[in-house]
Structures are given as C-alpha cells and as structure tokens.
Amino acid sequence: MNFFKKFNHKIMGNFGMLSISALWLAILSGLPLIIFYDVRAPYLSIQEILIRYPIIQLFRSIHYWSAQLLIIFAIFHSVEMMIGINAKEKNKIIFSTWWPAAFAFPILLFIMLSGYILKGDSEGKLAAQIFSELLWPPVKYFLLGNTNNNGWQTLYLQHASMATILLLAAVLAHAKRIWPSFSDWPIVSFLVVLLAIFFPIGLHSEFYLKTQGPWYFLPLQEILHWQNDPAILPYILLILYLFFFFFPRFSWRLRSLLKFFFSLFGLIFISLIFFVFFFRGAYWAITIPKDPWPNTNIYNSIYSYFPDKKAITQDTPRVNGRSEGCLLCHQQEFGFATSHNPKAIGCSSCHLGNIFSANKTTAHQNMILLPGNINNIEQARLTCGATNCHAEIVERVDKSLMNSMRGVIAVDRFAFGEKKIPNGTDSVKQLGGSSADTHLKQLCTMCHLGNVKKESGPINELSRGGGCMACHLNYDDGQKDNKNYHPALTLQIKSEHCFGCHSRSGRISTNYQGWHESKLTAAELPTHSSASYRLLADQRVFEKKEADVHFLAGMECIDCHTSREAMGDGNIHLHQEKQTEITCIDCHQNGPLPTVGWDQLSDEDRKIIRLRNNGKEERPRQFLKIGKSNKALPFAFLNPQGDLIMQGKNSKKIFRLKGPTIQCTQTMPGHERLACHSCHSSWAPQCLSCHTQQSGRGIWQEFSDSFLSDAPPLGIVPGPNNQEKIVPFIPGMVMTISTDIPKNKKFVRLFAPTVPHTTGKKSRSCISCHLSSNALGAGRGDLSYNSIDTTFNFYPRYSALSDQLPADAWTAFLKDGPPNSTRIDARPFNRKEQLKILNVGLCLSCHPYEEKNIRWIYHNFKRSISKMSKRCRILQ
Amino acid sequence: MKKITAMQLNRKNFLKLAAWSFSVFFFGLTLSIPTIKIRSRQKKIRLLLENINSGANLFDEVIIVKDLNMLRAYLRRCTHLGCPLNINSDGTLICPCHGSQFNLAGMAVTGPATKNLTELAIKIDPEKKFAEVEYELL
Fold this sequence. Notes:
The structure holds two protein chains of two kinds.
Chain A (H helix, E strand, L loop, with lengths): L1 H10 L3 H22 L5 H11 L1 H30 L11 H24 L3 H13 L2 H8 L2 H4 L2 H23 L8 H15 L19 H9 L6 H13 L6 H28 L29 H5 L4 E2 L2 E2 L2 H4 L12 H4 L2 H4 L8 H4 L13 H6 L8 H9 L1 H4 L1 H10 L19 H9 L25 H4 E2 L13 E2 L5 H8 L5 H6 L1 E3 L15 E3 L5 E4 L4 H4 L4 H4 L2 H5 L8 H4 L4 H4 L7 E2 L6 H10 L10 E3 L6 E7 L5 E4 L6 E3 L5 H4 L10 H5 L5 E2 L4 E5 L2 E4 L4 E2 L5 E5 L5 E14 L8 E8 L13 H4 L2 H4 L4 E6 L4 E6 L34 H16 L9 H4 L1 H6 L10
Antiparallel strand pairs in A: 1-2, 3-4, 5-7, 6-7, 8-9, 9-10, 10-11, 11-12, 13-16, 14-15, 17-18, 18-19, 20-21
Helix pairs in contact in A: 2-4, 2-9, 2-10, 4-5, 4-10, 5-6, 5-9, 22-23
Chain B lengths: L10 H28 L2 E8 L6 E5 L2 E6 L2 E6 L10 E2 L5 E2 L6 E2 L5 E3 L8 E2 L1 E3 L5 E8 L1
Antiparallel strand pairs in B: 1-11, 2-3, 3-4, 4-9, 5-6, 6-7, 7-8, 10-11
C-alpha cells in the first residue's frame, strides 16, 4: 500500500514537475543529433543514423520519447489544474501563473510538430505542407523560411533554438523554477530510456501508403478531411485557445461551463485519435485493421541497436536517393534482369522489409520473401504495383479473367442451379460455401493467377498461379543451386510458364504440343515407345497426337497472345473468348493489311518492343493491327518487301504469315458462318463426363474417365454484328450433381465453345462434318442412309444417360434440342440445320468434292438440288 | 505608459517591449511578403514525349495527363491543403493527406477539395520530341 501511496504522491499532482524533467531530457538528448542532422538532406541523414550510428539512434529515440511524455505530462498538468485535483493549489488558479503555461502550449506543439517535420520523410513532408497552408503567411515565413533554397534550416533553428528558449522562459515564468526536481529526474529518465530501448523510433518508409501525422494532430487531420474550406480552422482554434488562455479570468459559472466543454472536447479528441489511428488507412479511406498495430513501420525493435559490423565499416549503398541498408549484406547476389537489378531499384522495392536497419532481424521485419503474389492486392500495390513501377498493370491483372476465374465460377454456379445464367462478375475471392463454390474450391481454384506461390523455385508443370511470378520468373538452370543466385524477372515468358494450368481442363497446352491424355497410369507407361508417351509431373500419362502447326513451326504461346490478353486490358470480361483479342484471321489475311505506325502503338507495346530489342526502337515499321481490339500485335509487321512477317518474341525466329487459300476466301455458300478453327482443328480432347464426383457430403474428388480425341462437334455462338458463328464445342460439364438437398439431385450436360489449339495445315474433310453424327452434336455411332424410306438411321455408340441422350452427345439426332451450353445464346444445330448438313453429306457420298469437275454442285447447291437426277436423294 | 529605460526593464516592461517588437517585426514581414513571393522559384521541366505514358504521369511537382495523344499538365498539388497527389488504383488522382480525388480532367471529384487542379501550359518543341512545362513554387 505504501508503494501506491508513494506512487500517487510522486505522480498525481506532480505532472508539472515531471514535465520539466521530460523537457530537460528532450533538450539534452537533442544535442548529439545536431552533429549528424543535415538540414539539406534530412531524410538521408536520419537514415544514416538509423543504419550506422546506434548510439545516436538511442539519443534520437530518447529525444522522441521525452517529447511525447512532455506533452502528455503538460496536458495532465493543465487538466489537474483546471479540475483542481492539485491539493497544493487548492483550486486557486492565478492568472499570472496560468498565462505563461498557456503561452507555452503552442510553443510546445510547434516544437513537437517541427520535430516531426524535420524527419524529412514523406509523413514529415506532408505535415509541413498542411502546417504551412494553415498558417498566416508572415508566421509561415518566420517559422519555415525559404524552404526552396535553404531546406529545413530555418525550421531547424526555430525548433532547436528559438522555441526551446521561449519554452524555458515560459516555464520559468510559470513555475518560478527551471530545474527538475532531484527525485523526479531519475523516474522520468528511467521511463524514457526504457521506452527508447524497447521502442526505438524508426522512419516512415516510402512504401507505406498510409500517412497520417503525429498522434496529437490526428483529430485535426480528421476534421480537415471533412472541412472543404480549411482556412476557417485556424480561427476556430484561435478562439478555443483564447478561452483556454484567459480561463482564470472568467467567472466561476463560465469556468464550470468551459470545464464541461473542454472535457467534452478532450473526450472527442481522444476518441478521434483512436479512430483515425486504427480505422483510417491509405488515402484516408476507412479500413478495418487486420494488424492490431497497423503502423508497425513507426517503431523498430530493440535489435536495431545491434547493426551488422558491415554497417560500421562500409558506406551504405544509396538507391534512388535513399539508403538501402539491405545492400550492405546482399551485395553478392547475381542473376537479375537489368530492370530489376537491386543496384537500380534496391531490394526493398520488391521485398519490402526495413531498409533503414543493418540488423538482420529488424531489416527482415515485414519482408515479403516471394513478392508478386496478387492474391492480396494491397500487398501487390506495395511491391510490383508500386506507383513508380507497374501500378496500372497490377490493377488490370486484378480484374483479369485469369485472376478472377469469373467465367469458370459463373458456369459452375449455373450448372449447379445456383445461377440462372452462366454469366457473372464474382471472382475467386468471393466464393462462399454453396455446393457450386465448394466444388470449385476443392477442385478448380488452384488454377488462377492469384493462387499464392509459397515456395521459391522455378515455375514447373506442378506450378499453379503465383501472380506476376507465374509468367515472369526465370531461373538459370546452371546457377540455380548457387546460394547467391537470384532468379530473374523478365519478359522471357515461355510456353512452360503456361503449361501448369493450361494442361488441365481444356488442355490447350498439351493439345498444342500434340499430347492427348490417356487412361494409362505412370506404372503402365510403355517403355518400348517412349517417344509416343509423356509422363507429366502430376503422373498423368499423355500419348502422342498431331501437334499444332504453329508449335511445329517453333511458335510459343506469347507469340500470338498479347500482354492485354494475359494480364487483362482493364475491362471486366465475362468469358475467355471475350478477353482474347487475337484471331486466326489477324495474321492470315490477304492484303491490304491493317497496320499502325510506331506513333500509334500503345505505351505498353512500345515498352515491350524496346525491352525485347535491347532498347532499340522500330520507328519505320508498320505493325499489324488486331481487328477485334484495334491494337497492335507488336511483333507482327511488314518487312521491307511489304510482306507480313512475325518475329518470335523469345526465339527471334522469323515466321512468314500467309493469307488463307482460295477455298477459305471464296467461301462456298452455306459456310459463311464457319470460324477458321471449325475446319482447321484436327482434333480436340473430349470426355464422356466430368472427372469429378462427390465421394461424401460436400467432398469432391477427381477420377479418371474416358478421353476421346477426334474431330470435335460443331455448334453455334453469337458473333459480331448479330451474326452467328460456327465453332468447335467440347463437353464442358457433363455430370450428376447432388447438392446438399437430395431431391435437387440433377444431371447436367453443358457443352463449351473451344479453340482446341490443334490447328492443322489441312482442314478436316467435308464428310467429317457432313456425314458425321458427332460433328452434328449427336454423338458417335453408326450413321447410315436408308434409300427406301429416305431416312437416316443412327445407332449411338454410347448408351443413353438420364437425359435420354447418348453419353457423348450434345443434342438429339435430327431433333431440336435445348441449348445445353456454358454460354448464353450458344446452341447445337437444330433439326433444320442438321438436315441441311446431312443433305450435303448425301451428295458427297456419291460426288466427292475432290473431283474437280463436279465441284460446281456445291458452289451452287440450291440450283443443283433443283436440277438433280431421279437417282439422287435428299432428306425433307 | 512609463518611459522605459535600461534601468527600469523589469519583467512586465520586458514583455511589453517584446510584444511591441514582435508586432513591428510581423508587420514588416507582412509588407515584405510580395517581395518574397517574387523571389519564389520558377521551375521548368523538360520531358521526352516518349516517357509520357497514357493516363496520369507524375513528375515531381507536375502531373502530365496523356489522353488519346492529347497532353495536359497540372500542378501536383491538392487544392485543399497542397499535398502532392498520387495516382489512385483506378488511374485517377488522389491526395495522400485527406483523400481528395480528382479526375484526369483535373476536376475535384471527391472532397474535401472542391477546387479544380491548377492547369499549366505545355510547350512542345517543333520536332515533337520534348514537352516543356513551366511552373512557380511559392
């Protein structure tokens, strides 16, 4: 009890004397800083203190904490005086004692705020700007001087000399003494040194967008946020201050009223401090703090007092005008691409951490070991998406289809009956706990760009996502085991980067290279014909098929696909075919070719060309314009002879881009709606059902099912200008869905439009469409013509499923079927269209198109039908 | 008021003298402000047109907006309290101090700022290689 009594006596009612102790501690601890502080380069000079001079940093922390305690003690002292808890004063406030203290308050605030500004970091600069705008111009010039020419020289002198002398004079006039009491001094010193040791004061890093101001000005900042005309604020503060200044002069009644008012004001003040500190984020937006101490960059840990010895013996490397403490230890790293070399951008631009510390533990605080993950967009905005780096691209990627999985989510929810249409804008971050979302979360969502890369190492067949690294991370195989090797972030995006995700679902990566998934297991892999089989890292066995002609020519994914397709163009597209801008016809067209000059290229295209050409520009070049987006394909251009060529982005190989043949350009009547890939896709992987099943309530598992790899069925999608387009389709979702409610168990059969990436030089044959039940969407089987009753007989190969259609079918043979598609307005051929197709097939069976002398039949089919002989038959 | 002499300079008289001196000093400072303003720094930036990207570009104290090959320049100062603006995630301009937002036409969209940005004149050299913006720092 005695201890508490002593404590009460020492502290309560003694705040005035404690303030004097704190004041002297602040003055004395400021002295060593004079030597190290540079008014012309304040930010750099404090960085040097933080990195190289731990003793000076201790003084700096003591300087800071004693000032904080000084203002807190001073506020407590004025409160105790006003409410009369100080027994010695017996509630009598004498004006001649009061006013010097009241006079000291703005001086004290000025000292505190100028100290904050003198840090020279971005917080300090913003505080200086706001402070100078609010001041009456003569006062502004008196306190700040000409900052354009002299830096913080005037402010520093006013802070260290004028204001300090005035404050001491005010203390003397107020307390009739200037020296601290012998018994208070050790208490305050102990408290301050303890705070300084355990909470060394840091410096605001440019990477943190959150800038608020010193804690005692946060309420003012909040008011300024709401105040359109801030010029009125200094007058309001002046009136409040005058009430405070003349407080003892007022009548007892008015003083009681003012006490109430000041108490209320104080309560609001404290609430606002907490509100702003915790709930105001970057750009003053309201945020819910994830971290209980959101401004961790304010304070360092005790470790910062023990820098690595390199910091003492070496000069701190400077990058972009800031001291980069990381480079004291990390100078041996190599392997970087030029643009991301730490000598140019430092380590912290990508990895964050605390650059103003040469102690390993402190320097690695808040560090991001694997930057570039875009799952957390706030973090991505601090690293790759920082204002001076790739800010615009990170925002685009965030909205892009590969990151959001918007199309997959909408189709899955539609299949599960949770959505009425297969379109939606929800992204993978908005998945909930519904049956569809559970299905997606368990089986599909690994394959999105935002999927976090958690381990270092190259992108391989098992990689899924990884943000920017998914495409741009490259390892030098010869060096990757060297401990000083750092992988490069480059534009050398190889097809292997895409393979991990795109070898699944539509399997375009494997299709492109001519591999088709088999039902063999790794153990069954035939050893005698290894060239015909390929074992992927995920143990799936693929068998050799016909590869895409573009692959055989040596083209990689990024030779056709642009940055706007891979990273998004900033718009929200609902499905992949909307985000894709390149089409076959862009490269394969006969003149006159749409081209653009260097000046019409987008900034991004120009930058890509410069980076890939070692800075060289291609001014005289005419670049091919993509029809859909009206933007350039930067590596497809006219050569000096006027021919269209493409240069491989990685290989630098030149590809001659040929126009389509006469069969394609002089379209045969009835084929106007055909997309190039309807005929030129030599095969497409097709499955009899989705390889996913529910193995328990809410648990989904993948299993192996039949894979087919023949020419795909065709169907209709809405095209541009309200015209329909015929494109290949493959089974999208064919499965029985049992949701949480058993009676809702249902079978779905949805086909999806596809670009199989199995382009062949030769198109598929006429009868592969006109006499094929599978091309019509009716599934595989025996199709025969009965000439007696002029009908077709179709015997499906696969037995019917619960919707009475064969397992591989999309629609019923020669019937109008439901759309059953993963896209709005996409549909299979209807009965009339199927009849038309088969009628041509009937003719082809006797008059093959290959016989040149009878081709005219098909070029004028209507007329031919009207003149056909009695032996000829068509269906009605 | 008593005649002040060196012998009589007690606490009260000193404070009076100090108050008067300060008033005279500030009066003088007020009168000299126009001269200080004249001495404010005239600055000029010269930029390669190639380095100006579509949308907003930040160059120290100047913002250059490129929209369909049209260039506009603004002083990079929020019209609320003068803080330097940044580029927001949607490509528009935002103030780090109190969250005021401006569109690329320089108009105040979200408060507390209500005034539009100060537009600066851009000169482009005849060879169309450089853009030059002159501005004044008070």
